[in-house]
Write a structure and sequence with these properties.
The protein is mainly alpha-helical. 77% of the residues lie in helices and 0% in strands.
């Protein structure tokens, strides 16, 4: 055993020495980030542009998620978990991971349009960067318009105090995005309400049976959980919810 430990530490020492020699032979670039006083208006403008770009890159994941099917899917899956009564199962990582996978599945036609009309022409130098951005927004706006309710869209058009749009092209993106988010929240909670009903019935039945048997100190949720789980498994609940979510999106 002692010889094995000595050999193990010897191999680690050889590895560290070889890594140090290799590191000394490789010349790494020197990256220097500093802040200096702007001497010209152009330098100040460039600094502000860099700051704005860094801020946009930081918020980009949240903005992208809020303009896709992720909102509805993750809320419905979370409400389903609460309806069953298992607050920690499946874990949050599983819920978010499944929501992301289903989001990519739902958004695949939109992503294909963006790839065909914006990304590939831009990579081939057929269109400019601004044209690529404009072309990429068209499929996203089409997807959001199909999921947005008219009441939410009218609300934000009124709040923005702009002229009543004559068609979808006249609706600004900054008005469309919050309208889409509110519509997705409303739709998700409607679906969650329907999912909660059968589990609520099981809870009421179990609670009534326990009260009639005089077991008032036994938590009804603990007794009802096995029945809710077996019912959810027998009806293949995850598959039904996934199918309903995907078919609920308009394409």
């Amino acid at each position: 055993m002692k010889n094995r430990i000595i050999k193990f530490f010897g191999l680690i020492s050889i590895f560290l020495l070889s890594f140090q020699q290799a590191y000394g032979a490789i010349s790494l670039p020197n990256i220097n980030i500093s802040m200096q006083n702007a001497s010209t208006p152009q330098e100040f403008t460039q600094g502000v542009q860099v700051l704005i770009m860094l801020t946009i890159l930081t918020l980009a994941p949240s903005i992208i998620i809020m303009t896709t099917a992720f909102i509805r899917i993750v809320i419905v899956l979370s409400l389903t978990r609460q309806a069953i009564g298992t607050n920690t199962l499946p874990p949050n990582q599983v819920i978010v991971g499944l929501a992301l996978i289903l989001t990519f599945f739902v958004m695949s036609p939109t992503l294909s349009k963006i790839n065909e009309t914006a990304y590939q022409p831009y990579m081939k130098n057929v269109i400019t960067q601004q044209q690529a951005l404009d072309n990429s927004m068209i499929p996203i706006r089409e997807f959001m318009f199909k999921q947005t309710h008219e009441s939410e869209l009218e609300l934000f058009v009124k709040l923005s105090k702009i002229e009543r749009p004559k068609n979808q092209d006249d609706v600004p993106t900054y008005v469309l995005i919050p309208s889409f988010v509110l519509s997705e929240l409303k739709t998700a909670f409607k679906i969650g309400f329907v999912i909660f009903l059968p589990f609520l019935v099981i809870d009421l039945v179990v609670a009534s049976v326990l009260v009639s048997m005089g077991m008032m100190f036994l938590p009804p949720t603990t007794v009802a959980m096995p029945f809710k789980l077996i019912m959810f498994v027998m009806v293949d609940g995850w598959a039904l919810i996934t199918q309903s979510l995907i078919e609920g999106f308009k394409f």
